[in-house]
Amino acid sequence: MPVIDLRPASKHLSALIKAVSDDVLFEPTPCSNYCVGDLLDHITGLTVAFGGAAVKADGESASMGPAGDGSNLHPDWRVFLPQRLETLVSAWAHPDAWTGTTRVGGQELPGEIAGIVLFGELTIHGWDLARATDIPFEPDRASLLPLFDLVRQTFSPGQDAARGSAFGPAVPVAEDAPMLDQTLGLLGRDPTWTRPENNLR
Description:
The protein is mainly α. It has helices spanning 7-19, 36-54, 60-63, 77-92, 111-133, 144-154, 179-186; strands at 101-104, 107-110. The protein has a domain at 7-140: dinb family like domain (Four Helix Bundle (Hemerythrin (Met), subunit A), Up-down Bundle). Helix content is 47%, strand content 4%. The protein starts with 6 loop residues before the first helix and ends in a 15-residue tail after the last helix.
């Protein structure tokens, strides 16, 4: 059986995508290298990469790097992206997606770990998008523990090399902070991040 039900996180992310207005596409996000449009393109790319990972595909989906260029967005991205996310989650609803080994981003991973990473992509980028657009965000708390455990193991003290260029230094977060905030901090996100104009109020 799937380790995590990805549908709640996917549905929430799809709702966020549909609510994004054109006038914020060039606004910054907690991903320092991405504006909102770039982040949406990155989400498009992960549907390809993890869609291939679900069926143990080789080729481009197994080796592609992280997309992130808003100029490549599908013209009707508010419809296109939720459809892609629905297809992605359907692929990961099959128990075989969570077994054996697969490849994503040029790395070989156990299917179970790839699925948890995908949950992280859906959840953390949902948070990114919500913070960048001032839209409320509520994570799927029932599924956060496997992600938190994986992130804590991967980025524990002394394992900074594992961060590569994708993650910044860990942000200190109180030990009694919500699990999402602790996960964000380990991933180099500041849980208190807000849109720049909000800081001027």
